[in-house]
Amino acid sequence: MKTCSKCSLSYSLDEFPNNKKTKDGKGSWCKSCCKLYNNQTKEYKRVKALQYYYQNKEKCNQQQKNSSTKIAPGVYMIKNILTGDFYIGESTQPQKRFWQHCSDKSNNTSKYFLNKKEELIWGIIEHCNPNQLKVKEEYWIKTLKPTLNGAK
Ligand SMILES: [Zn+2]
């Protein structure tokens, strides 16, 4: 018999995991204590991983926001991946515009995108000179027939 140093209960040696470092060749915690501890550790790691994910997601979004002015002028598309609806627009700062759509209530188009960042994908269709933006936007709207532009 051996007493578990964790739960203070006595078990036969079979109930203790092997451990080469100890005198009797057995660990000081019984198997069920070890199991419990491992499960707790696993759960703890899982929670930590989730926390990390959410914190970094926030950080990622923040970085995107901060780099918003670095993307060259162009025609952009915002697509809702759940509904398939999409919108085409032009901007000298396309990424900044995207963020406006997701957060600015006063923006007319934002009603489709407000607080829906999770459902949206965003991308540049074509970069162009600022003085070509209107022409290019018209071209792409005609070509791709976005579902959300009509209500502009
Ligand atoms: Zn124990």
Assign the structural class, choosing from mainly alpha, mainly beta, alpha/beta, alpha+beta, or little secondary structure: alpha+beta
**What small molecules accompany the polymer chains?**
zinc ion
Elements, N to C (H/E): EEHEEHEH
Separate helix tally = 3
Determine the strand fraction and express it as a percent band: 15-25%
User: What's the average pLDDT?
Assistant: 83
The name of the CATH architecture of the largest domain is: 3-Layer(aba) Sandwich
Please state the overall shape, judged from the principal axes of the Cα atoms.
rod-shaped
Radius of gyration: 29 Å
The CATH superfamily of the largest domain appears as: GIY-YIG endonuclease
Describe the fold and architecture.
The radius of gyration is 29 Å and the shape is rod-shaped. It has helices at residues 31-66, 94-103, 133-144, and strands at residues 2-3, 10-11, 74-80, 86-91, 120-127. It has 152 residues and is α+β, with helices and mostly antiparallel strands. A hairpin with a 6-residue loop joins strand 1 and strand 2. The protein is built from three helices and five strands. A three-stranded antiparallel β-sheet has the order 4-3-5. A two-stranded antiparallel ribbon has the order 1-2. The chain has two domains: 2-66; 69-144, 3-Layer(aba) Sandwich (GIY-YIG endonuclease), CATH 3.40.1440. The structure holds zinc ion. The site of zinc ion has 8 residues, from helix 1.
